[in-house]
Amino acid sequence: MQDPIVRRPNTSSRRSLLKNGMLAGGALVGVAGTAGLAAITASPANAAHEASDAAILNKALFYEHQAIWAYSFAAGKLSNTDVGKAVLALALRNQADHMQHRDTLSAAVRSLGGAPVMARSSYDVSSYIRAGEGNLDSDVNIAKLALALETDAAIAYGSEISKLKTPALITAGASIGAVESTHATAIRAAFKSLGVGIEYVPASFISADTRSQWVLKV
Length: 218
Fold this sequence. Notes:
Blueprint: H1 11-25, H2 29-40, H3 50-75, H4 82-111, H5 126-130, H6 139-160, H7 167-193, H8 211-214
Helix pairs in contact: 1-4, 1-7, 2-4, 2-7, 3-4, 3-6, 4-6, 4-7, 6-7
């Protein structure tokens, strides 16, 4: 399916791609990275909940590892064009957030007496490619793949964090999930800056029911 291009991108729009993406992507970093760090490592009120909470946080940690790997892997496939450079800058900004989330979640799992799940050498994103939700063959399709991954991360946090038993962990986990949604918004803002006729925020909710409104098909 072709994207509805409403105007030809120009130099100004390429510059605004990076500017808009950085503003949206960094909006909530402080919440998860500073106040969230203190909250997520707080001791749980009920020790019986520790194993359950650690397992849930490890699921989230798995996806943070995946996102870090995906951005590194895709970075080497981006072109040296203005668009490729802008996508790379936004990718590195998002990846920095994921690294902070990784460190925070790892510390939380250890504080609960668990062992943080380790990063794999590679991850399988072929299901996204088969579904036409991105690819690694162009700057635009790499950005679409990142959008699909960030959308799923936001959805996963929304569904998994509610299962936690410790209020402080729920609060901090929700703040991380909010940052994941800003990543998706930042990528959509980048497309809009390049002339794609889409909204920054296409739905009032980010969930499995609205997922198709958030992702962009190849």
